[in-house]
Structure formats: structure tokens, C-alpha cells
Amino acid sequence: MTFQVNEVTSSQIDEESESEVVSRLDAEQLYPLAGPVEVEGAKAGDVLVVDVLRVKPADWGWSAIIPGLGLLEEFDEPYLHIWDLSDGRKAPFKADIEVPIRPFCGVYGVAPKEEGYHEVMPPGPHGGNMDNRHLTAGCRLLLPIWTEGALFSLGDLHAAQGDGEVCVTAIESPGVATVRLDIIRGLHLQSPEYILRSDGRAPGPLYGTTGISPDLWEAAKLSVRGMIRHLRREYGLTGEEAYVLCSVAADLTIHEIVDRPNWVVGTTIPLSLFPKRTGGRAVRLRRRS
Questions:
Q1: Alpha-carbon distance 253 to 283, whole Å?
Q2: 3-state DSSP call for residue 128?
Q3: How far apart are alpha carbons 154 and 228 in whole angstroms?
């Protein structure tokens, strides 16, 4: 399933834009999404499996400082940088600085549990604007389903981003994203989880859990508790054993700290620790075409 993805301002910024445009952005046009897609047979309590097959940005992108947003309040003047992405591998910044292009979508989500109108930002247990830079091609995202049909959408394509997205923008770009969808029945996740081929630190694939909360301390707790539940469910560990294993082998990462009021923390653990069993139904799932 392939989606054409607009950049996050709905084309209010283009290749010729200058910094002044940042102060004139219409918030009502932010976060255009591709979707929603109704998934036949999906129901509350199931999990939507999203295999990210391909994410390709356009040959240009932008990053900006938007006064009033971002982590640091002292940067109170608008600033815009236009990126040349035509190389496809690296984006030149300044002098000899080049940023590796690792595209992903900042938004993957299903319909929230609560009825009514919902902003794309902030993220929640349904996913949404998680800005998790690790959700690139080759990853598998697991989204708890809260409503019949799931109603999956994606958007906010990024050519590159650091964990945290501290100034509130990544390299924002239009582009194309291709995913494959499937369902796991009755897994009852409480927050999005994911499987990565690698994160550049640990060799081989990793399993990840998330915590999403307006309190960063609480988000970290939720993420670790999610990993403990996973380790108990899939590998038969006790709570104490899982907690210790998290402390000695798992990594805790702030994926996003600027989409107030909710922050996203991830916990990842290498699947190479479990050579006889690599992650339960979520990893062994037989993929549909």
C-alpha cells in the first residue's frame, strides 16, 4: 500500500521560502495525513502490524526554528534552512557537514479510543505524531487497535531526525511511503511497540516498547513496564528477572520531547539475547501480501 505524503505545512513552505514564512504559518493546515484506511476485520483489542517497506523523500526538505515551540525558549527568532536531498544518501548542511538521510514518517497511527475530533499532535496510545526516528524502512510497528476497522493513517515524512527532535522540526519533506498491514488478534497492547533491524548500536534486530505521557518520568516508567510485560509474556521471565534484564541489557531513549503535552520514551532490547526464540507472535507473524 503506497501513500503520497505532503510535507507537514501543506506546502506553505517550498524550496524558495525564506525565514519570514515561519512566522506566518497557518496552524490549521499543519499535519496533513494520508488516510484513513479501514482494515477489514480489525477490532478493539487487536494489534495492527505496520511493516514499513519504503519511505522516499523528495529531493528537497526544510528545517526551522519556530518561536514558542521546541525545547529551548531562548531561540525566539524564526529561522529556516532549506536542504538539498538530491544525493539520496547525505544532505549537505554547512562547510563539510553532511547529514545521513534516513527517512521515516513522524506519524503512524490509528483512530484513538475516544470519539470526536483529535489533533494529530500530540501522540498517544494510538500512535500519531510519535516522531520515532527508528521507524524507517525494514521496521515493524505494532499499534494497539481501539476502534473497529483501525482507521490507519500516516504522514509527516522526515528525511532525517535526531532522537528528541529538539528544535521541533526534523528535515521535513514531501515524499512517498509504502507499508504492508496485518493484524494480530487479541494481543491487547497498551502502547505502540516495534521491531527494528538495527539501531546502529546493537548488532541485529531489537524489540522496542514505548511510554507516552505528559510527564517524562512517567513516560519512562510506562516504557520500561511495557518491556517487562513483553519479556514476561514472550520469554516466561518473572517480573524481577525482566526488570533486572532491562537494567543491564536494554536502552532507554527519548524519541520525542517537543510535541507537548505528551513526550515519547522508548525502551529497546536486542533480540540476539534470545537465540532460541526471537520475539513471539509479533516477530514470527506470517506476512500477507
A1: 22
A2: strand
A3: 28
User: On the CB side of 268, how many CA atoms lie within 13 Å of its CA?
Assistant: 22
Residue at 106 is within a domain: yes
CATH code, domain carrying 121? 2.60.120.580
Give dist(CA 90, CA 49) in Å, integer: 30
Helix axes 239-249, 216-235, angle to 10 degrees: 120
Residue reference for cell 527517512: 103
Name the phi and psi angles at 272, rounded to 5.
-65, -15
This prediction's pTM: 0.91
Among 12-26, 116-130, 159-173, 244-258, the range scoring the smallest mean pLDDT is 116-130
Would residue 289 count as lying in a domain? no
Tell me, letter by letter, the H, E, C secondary structure of 206-240.
EEEEEEEECCHHHHHHHHHHHHHHHHHHHHCCCHH
How far apart CA 113 and CA 238 sit, in angstroms, is 31
Domain range holding 33? 2-284
Per-residue CA distances from 238 to 235, 247, 267 (Å) = 9, 14, 18
Kindly calculate the radius of gyration of the chain based on its CA atoms and give it in whole angstroms: 19
Q: Is residue 16 part of a domain?
A: yes
Q: Is the peptide bond before 123 cis (omega within 30 degrees of 0)?
A: no
Number of domains in the chain: 1
* Mean of all residue pLDDT scores within the chain: 92
Is-contact 161 133, C-beta < 8 A? yes
Strands 47-57 and 175-184, how do they pair? antiparallel
Given a contact cutoff of 8 angstroms between Cβ atoms, the answer to whether 17 and 80 are in contact is yes
